[in-house]
Design a protein that fits this description.
Elements lengths: L7 H7 L10 H13 L3 H8 L3 H11 L2 E4 L2 H13 L9 E5 L39 E7 L3 H6 L12 E7 L6 E2 L14 E5 L1 E3 L17 E5 L2 E2 L1 H7 L8 E5 L15 H7 L9 E5 L19 E4 L3 H4 L19 E4 L7 H12 L1 H4 L5 E5 L3 H13 L3 E5 L7 H4 L4 E2 L12
Parallel strand pairs: 1-2, 2-3, 3-4, 4-6, 5-7, 6-8, 7-9, 8-10, 10-11, 11-12, 12-13, 13-14, 14-15, 15-16
Helix pairs in contact: 2-4, 3-4, 7-8, 10-12
């Protein structure tokens, strides 16, 4: 929290008839933050009018989190912030969330009165973000008219230098995908740790060679309903120093249809190979995606959790060609989850049972498998094989069973303890 210095003489003069005034700034900040958390921001505004010291400390709390639900509110705040740019350093979290219809009466390129920022640099609703020098969390859900202006923020090395978490979603006409190319430099941000992209598209070109950045601090990447080429993604994933969590989700029938995305899970596993030494969790929730070949993931030495839709995304569907490779599970894998029912491919079901039987050899740290209710005969086979090989089976949606098998800690376990990460976005 940024607190500006103040002369000791002025501070003592203000505190003569003020019991709160004897408290140090750090303790007063805690008091003001508690007031804000209790929903008494109006009272805190009143306190801020008492003297300069309270005004300064209250600003650090009142402006810590800012939500813009209309562009008019955003513009009004921009005018205030342009006159008092120091106030921008108190802001830690910003959310921009308003629909396209809200922009119809506004001039996006208009100069903000009193602003020292040249109007040609950013559009009128996004350039104010650059003043927020201590911003740590940015959540964008605005019309695509602001795509270029906000994207320009990520081009410079000094704007938003403290940013740790970012969510980007631009509302396009006809619900189309927005072009990630305009915001591509968000991947070059040196300090960003969490990035969520919703309904973005990206082709196979990746970064231009001349603009390729150094390693970044990105730890979590979530691609929600995006149309991302696997080769382009592979290029982007060479940048993080140690990515730990990857989530990619699609609807069962994406609208509009995916043009850049591959239809094979194996292609995206290949794209993740540059992060194989650091990834701890991989979630690919794409019901329409298949796999043309068996997954080989022995290089993913740190992976503990793998979530897929179908068992045949792991094994590849039945084919007339002989299988020359068996599944290469990550050596440290602890949890394997399938979002959809097992047994839709008979050959794959046999391969799954064989994999469980060889668990002690191919994945000796494998502790849990999570599935959903489906064909009772298939589940019975899987349940028995899991019990024989000391593998816990969680069946989402099943009723608790009280037979002796469950009392021994094996067999079917019901509940919602293993929800999809992609579904929570």
């Amino acid at each position: 929290m940024l607190v500006f210095p103040e002369d000791d003489e002025d501070k003592s003069a203000e505190c003569k008839n003020d019991r709160l005034g004897v408290l140090p700034d750090e303790l007063l900040l805690q008091v003001f933050e508690t007031l804000a958390q209790l929903g008494t921001r109006k009272d805190l505004c009143n306190v801020s009018r008492l003297n300069k010291r309270y005004h300064r400390l209250s600003d650090a709390t009142l402006y810590k989190q800012v939500l813009f639900q209309t562009p008019e509110l955003h513009l009004t705040f921009s005018e205030s912030l342009s006159r008092r740019p120091r106030r921008g350093s108190a802001i830690n979290e910003v959310t921009l969330a308003y629909p396209s219809s809200e922009l119809s009466q506004l001039a996006l390129g208009a100069h903000v009165p009193g602003s020292y920022i040249h109007p040609s640099r950013f559009d009128g609703l996004s350039r104010t973000l650059s003043i927020m020098s201590n911003l740590e969390k940015l959540d964008i859900a605005v019309p695509s008219d602001l795509l270029h202006g906000i994207g320009s923020l990520f081009n410079g090395p000094f704007d938003l230098s403290c940013l740790k978490s970012c969510k980007l979603f631009y509302q396009c006409p006809n619900d189309e995908y927005w072009d990630l190319r305009e915001n591509i430099h968000i991947f070059a941000h040196p300090e960003l740790e969490e990035l969520t992209l919703r309904r973005a598209k990206f082709d196979e070109q990746g970064f231009n060679f001349l603009e390729r950045p150094h390693e970044t601090a990105l730890k979590k990447l979530h691609l929600i309903e995006c149309d991302i080429n696997d080769d382009g993604l592979g290029d982007l994933l060479e940048l993080p120093e140690a990515l730990e969590e990857f989530v990619m989700t699609h609807q069962e029938e994406p609208e509009p249809e995916l043009e850049e995305s591959s239809d094979s899970v194996a292609d995206y596993i290949q794209a993740l190979k540059s992060q194989s030494e650091s990834l701890i969790s991989i979630t690919i929730d794409s019901p329409s995606m298949t796999s043309r070949k068996v997954l080989r993931m022995r290089e993913f030495g740190a992976l503990r959790s793998l979530r897929l839709n179908w068992d045949y995304q792991l094994f590849a569907k039945s084919s007339k060609k002989p299988r020359l490779h068996s599944v290469g599970l990550p050596p440290e894998l602890e949890m394997l989850e399938f979002f959809n029912e097992l047994g839709t491919d008979a050959e794959v079901n046999d391969l799954l049972l064989a994999l469980i039987e060889s668990k002690s050899i191919v994945a000796r740290h494998w502790k849990t498998m999570v599935v959903v209710e489906g064909d009772e005969s298939i589940l019975k086979q899987v349940k028995a094989t899991c019990k024989e090989n000391d593998l816990r089976l969680d069946i989402i949606g099943a009723f608790d069973e009280t037979d002796s098998d469950d009392d021994e800690g094996m067999g079917s376990k019901s509940g919602d303890s293993a929800d999809s990460e992609g579904g929570s976005e």
